[in-house]
Structure formats: structure tokens, C-alpha cells
């Protein structure tokens, strides 16, 4: 008789390239389980609810019953093994510091309980710790990390197993609603018009992008209006698609694009896209090597940075897109409306919080964690440390984005601003990026009263810039004298 194996699904709600499930299907009869454990942000919780629903339906159609549980995984898995007679637990690794810590303990406990554990690597292209410089140390510069990654073969994705034996016993399972993922507020309802969680929708989205848009990735990826990037980030964050599958299918496209009639930039676009995907690995590798970065600056010098004390009204104005700087407000309103924001705009709104307002980057990362559908501890932490200048290979602190110039450069005809700030739609282009400078007549023609229909800037740019540079100088002096 084949032995029973619990497959513990986590951030890998997919059948394609799922080694824990694949190997279990070769070795025995599968008992599939999902355990709700972490407290996650509101947008992520909404996503997880739909993603789990979709995955459960998929398993149902294959004759499997995905058991839903909540609570401490150690307890749940031990009880489940005892109840079902399972002799092994298989799962795919997660790399967040608390998961690494808990998994170590879990493996020991299950072994003591007589249950064998098999873990697998799948949610990154390269296993953390496997990419090192010549001295055997972690890379601090992305370009060098990327160059090394390019030389290393990425493991091919596994297919969906042809035959899976599911355990037929009826095990008590929570109802999806009992996991209480979706909050009582209706905030999440609007997200449904923008996203379709689940493996099938993700594969369709990826292949549509790969068919056409990937070849124009380098040309348009910095344009916040065009949706020219893959928009795969939440799907990757929830493991609905394997990065290895994306890598291998992209490589096939790269070979094709050499044959097809594409210009030079289009030919380089696939590589440009993969390079961006490798930033995700860079983020996870950093998180594993330097777990303290979740709360503390990667560069020690910034421990003494003189951040401003948070004023709730000002922070709220940033969160809800009421700063008086149209590009910042457009980005923050896009986030509030869709649970996502374009990467270029993330950098600019982040810089504004950290440098114009001098608020600790943790204020921003916490808001992103709650509202982004792609909230991801590694990427979010690296993104914020990049913006604050406190991470490896970051934008230096003294490089302060001017929100007006950034708008002129990346939204030259104001389409992005007008989309998210309809109250400004009648303003002529020149004033769209700094409405407070518009003459009274122009404001009247556009039906805008500054301070009534649209806010005054909450901080003046030149003042904020000087203040940020002087805080930076103060930190440098303190470190010199320390
Ligand atoms: C302050 C800040 C916070 C961020 N927080 C997150 C976050 O919580 N979750 C998240 O997934 N990304 C985060 N990012 C990175 C980036 O903005 C998003 O990954 C990207 O916008 C997602 O869009 P896309 O899927 O269309 O990306 P594409 O351009 O199509 O790239 C493909 C994939 O590569 C990865 N990727 C792309 N850019 C980056 C990057 N700069 N860093 C790490 N991975 C990248 C993502 O998984 C993405 O889905 C943050 C960036 C900043 C500046």
C-alpha cells in the first residue's frame, strides 16, 4: 500500500512546477492542506481569499479535497498526521525570516513525531545562498548579481503530474469564510474589476504578455499609463505562477526574437524583462542573508538618521493622495483604487515620504504592505530601502526626486495624472504638474479652487530638499564623531 503524504500548500497555489506536490504524487497518496497562519495586509487577504477559492475548485475538479485549517501549523500538521496516518509532510520553502525559523523547528518536531519531512525549492529562480561573489560573500550590487545569475542554468519547471492519487478520507475542513480573510469593510470590492487571482488566469495573463508586450518592455516599461509591464507581481507573490516557468518560456522567446523581424531594442526586451525578474531574487537573497533589514537599515550609518516625528494628518494626506503634488497623489490614489502602483511611481511617492516629509521608510512600507495586492516582504523591504538610500545598490539619499520634474518626464502629456485626479482634468498641461502656480483665470476656467477642490502642497519642494540634505549631513557628522 502506498503511504500517505500531507502536501502543505503555502505560497504556491498552483499545479504547474510545484515540486512538493509533484514529488508527493510520485511517492504516495496525497492529503492536500492549506493552513492560514500569518496576519496579512487587507489587499493580500482579499487576494488570498480568491486565490484559495480558485485553487480549491481546481483540486475539486481533480477529485481532491483541499483541507483548510487555521492556527499554528506545527499543531495542525501533527494532528493531521495522527488522524490520517500520514507518514510524511512535503512542502515548498518560504524564505521570510520567521518562516525559515519556524520551519526549522517544525521539521525537528515532526521528525520527533515520527513524520518524515521533505522540503523543496521552487519560488525563486536561484536558491538563497547559491549566488555568491568570488570571495564567497553575498552580492551588494545588482548588476554583478545579475551577471552571475545569467551564467547559471535555471532548473526547468516541472509539469503537472500525470497521475495523482488523492486520499479519499473525509477530513474536517474549515469553510473558506471561516478563515476570515475578507474584512467587513467593502474596500476590497473595487479590486475585483482589476484582478483575477488563480493559476489559470495567471497563465493566460503571462502568455498574453509574452505573445506581444514583452517585446516592447524596454521601450515602455517606465510609462505609468500604458500597463506595459507584465502586472504579474501579485501572482508571483502568491505563487500562482513559477518564476522558473517564466524564465524558460522567456528564453524560448528570446531565441525566436533573434529570428523574427524585431529591432534591436525589441530583441533586448526579453532579457530586460528577465533582468527585472531577477531583482525579485536579489531581494530574497538579501532578506535571507540580512534578516534584520525588515526593520533596520541595511547600511548601519542610517541607524542614527534624524527622522521627523509623524504627524497623522500629514501621513494621512500622503496615504490618500492629498499632498498637493499631482504625480504623488495620482500614484497614491491608483494604489487605493487598484491595490497596485507602477514601479516608477512607487519610487517617486516613496522618495516623497522619506525625503520631503522625512518620515521613516517603515511608515511607507507598512502602508504598502496593507494596500498592495503584491505586498511581498522581500520586495517591499528592498524597494523601501532603495528609496530611502539605506539599502545595497540604492538610490543615494542625496538624490531627491523632484515630483514636478518626474511628472514632466514620465507623464509628459498628463494622462496618468488626469486618470487618477479627475478634478484636475481641465487644467492645461503646464499647470497640471504644479496647479498652485496656475493664474486665477486658468484655475477658474478649470473649475478649481486650490485648497478647496485640490490641496495646496503640504510641503514646499525647495524647503523640503534643503531640510532633507541637512538631516543627511547631520547623520554623516554624527557617524564621523561616533
Ligand atoms: C517602494 C517600493 C515598494 C515595492 N514593493 C513591492 C512589493 O511589495 N511587492 C512586489 O512584488 N514588488 C514591489 N516593488 C517592486 C516593483 O514596483 C513591482 O514588483 C513591480 O512594479 C510589479 O509590476 P509588474 O509585475 O508589472 O513588474 P514587471 O516589470 O513586469 O516585472 C516582472 C516581475 O519582476 C519582479 N520585479 C520587477 N521589478 C522589481 C523590483 N524593483 N524589485 C523586486 N522585484 C521586481 C516582480 O515580481 C514583477 O512581477 C516595490 C518597489 C518600490 C520602489
TrEMBL record:
Co-factor note (free text): Binds 1 FAD per subunit.
Coiled coil: none
Annotated Photolyase/cryptochrome alpha/beta domain residues: 3-125
Catalytic activity field: cyclobutadipyrimidine (in DNA) = 2 pyrimidine residues (in DNA)
Organism this protein belongs to: Saliterribacillus persicus
Site (Electron transfer via tryptophanyl radical): 307, 361, 384
GO molecular function, one term: DNA binding
UniProt keyword annotations, A-Z: Chromophore, FAD, Flavoprotein, Lyase
Cofactor: (6R)-5,10-methylene-5,6,7,8-tetrahydrofolate; FAD
Sites where the protein binds FAD: 217, 229-233, 273, 374-376
UniProt name for this protein: Deoxyribodipyrimidine photo-lyase
Family indicated by similarity: Belongs to the DNA photolyase family.
EC number annotated for this UniProt entry: 4.1.99.3
InterPro entries: Crypto/Photolyase_FAD-like_sf, Crypto/Photolyase_N_sf, Cryptochr/Photolyase_FAD-bd, Cryptochrome/DNA_photolyase_1, DNA_photolyase_1_CS_C, DNA_photolyase_N, Rossmann-like_a/b/a_fold
One of the GO BP terms on file: response to light stimulus
